[in-house]
Amino acid sequence: MNEIGLTRYLMMLRKEAKWGTSYFERHDLNPEYWNKILGPIKDNPNQWEGKKALDFGTGMGRNVTNLLSLANWKTIYAVDISDKNINLCSQTFPEKAQFRLVGGKDLKIFKDDSFDFVVSTLVLKHLACYSLRLILLQEIYRVMKPGALFTFDMGAGQDLEERAYPNHWFCLMRTGGLAMPSQLSVAKYHEDKYDALGSNGECDVRVIDISDFFYPSVLNLKWLIFEIPMKVSKER
Questions:
Q1: pLDDT tens digit sequence for 170-228
Q2: Domain span at residue 46?
Q3: Using an 8 Å Cβ cutoff, are 117 and 40 in contact?
Q4: CA–CA distance from 60 to each of 56, 64, 72, 106, 117 (Å)?
Q5: Is-contact 52 71, C-beta < 8 A?
Q6: β-bridge partners, 101
């Protein structure tokens, strides 16, 4: 791991997060989100009554809103690297939802074995730095209780043309040139793209070889969704 490169990459992420993010409500229209990412909660809400959940990379709190609607949690903690996101969410959500600012490299604000359920969407697939993803997944593993469940998503497929959202205006905005969607950079799974221009389309990571992961629950052209119970290892 290149510490200088990792520091540079984290600085880019924090700069990008300065202005906050959108709510990304269109992602609620994806049935796989409800059936896979939140399926364990939706299908058995009583199991999670009085439990503690963590939303990693909460943005504007979309996952928190949906978790609150599905089960009677004791507490839902949500973390993000954007001051703006955390401040806005802290003012608008009920007390049961607690929002915390993190630095992007650890979850040291939480003790070991703290959470029964962890969810993360639209985060890991935008981090084109394997070393950072591994650190973060090890931290998530640390704060999970024995028997806890972790669901998250990754992009999957051969090239960026499989993604629906990059359009020519997006490419112009992100690259400053007349790049085609298929020309946006994609990191290999075990690659560290410390010099990535950004984290939301400029340079994403794609899973091509399913053997890079353990315990996949579903794989299609656009989504790789994981349900990882019992605190098993998450990345090699």
A1: 555 555 555 555 566 778 888 999 988 777 766 778 776 666 654 444 333 333 444 44
A2: 3-158+206-229
A3: yes
A4: 12, 9, 21, 20, 19
A5: no
A6: 80
